[in-house]
Specification:
Layout (H helix, E strand, L loop, with lengths): L2 E7 L5 E7 L3 H10 L3 E7 L15 H17 L3 H9 L5 H15 L4 H5 L8 H13 L2 H58 L5 H40 L3 H10 L5 H8 L1
Helix pairs in contact: 2-3, 2-7, 3-4, 6-7, 7-8
Length: 270
Amino acid sequence: MPEYRYRAVDDKGRDVSGTMSEDSAVRVSAILEEQGLQVSSIEQVTETVPAPSRTGSLSWDEVELLNQQLHAIVRSGLPLAPALKAVSTELRSPRLQNVLESIRGALEQGKSLEEALEPVADKLPPVYRASLVAGDKSGNLLAVLDHMCAYTGEMAEYRNRMQMALAYPALVVVVCALVLMLLLGIVVPQFGEIFQDFGAGLPALTRFWLDVAETLNYRYPKILICVSILVIAWHFGMKFARGTANGPYYLDWIKLRVPGFGKAFRQGSL
């Protein structure tokens, strides 16, 4: 609830000043007049809008919960800012709580819903944020939220199904990698000593795997350092590319043309 600083004069001509937390300046003026005071000035105390934390965008499960809360508030006709404050105190998700606090702070400063959503634009799916703004401007926010309840629920369910479908292949890849490392690190070198005792020439494929095993055994610190550097460079490179004006466009262009994965990426986006 916003806080207002007031100045007034009592029936004896003495100056009276103080602060009061109410829904609006009109309400503050009415209360002061009921107390027999003549209001001189009322001004809202500037409140700093909480800065959104840099903890990444909301998941579809969190967006679904956010939409359900907004739908319940708008349908009940409650003031949006005080209701958001009450809801945020009961949430367990720090990211969602921070988003609600940011929106609430902006609304209490008299900003529109579009302006309140601007600081948290990177936390919300673009289609969801655009739908809220369109519904607010057209005066049809309740219908938009009702429609988005089904949409966010379907997206959350789809995301969960995708994660479950990818869990098994990911587990298989990890197990295969561990088995391969075990073979190259322990089994193959032992066979290499046996082959050397034969004194005969080895096939090219066998010599290749023996060389790989020897490299892993004697140069694994350097290999780990190189892999770590590549992973860090990839992470910061992707982060820098997404932050540029044309970076996301070129990244999507590459994804759509990766053999085997381009079609899956296109279908997932649709």
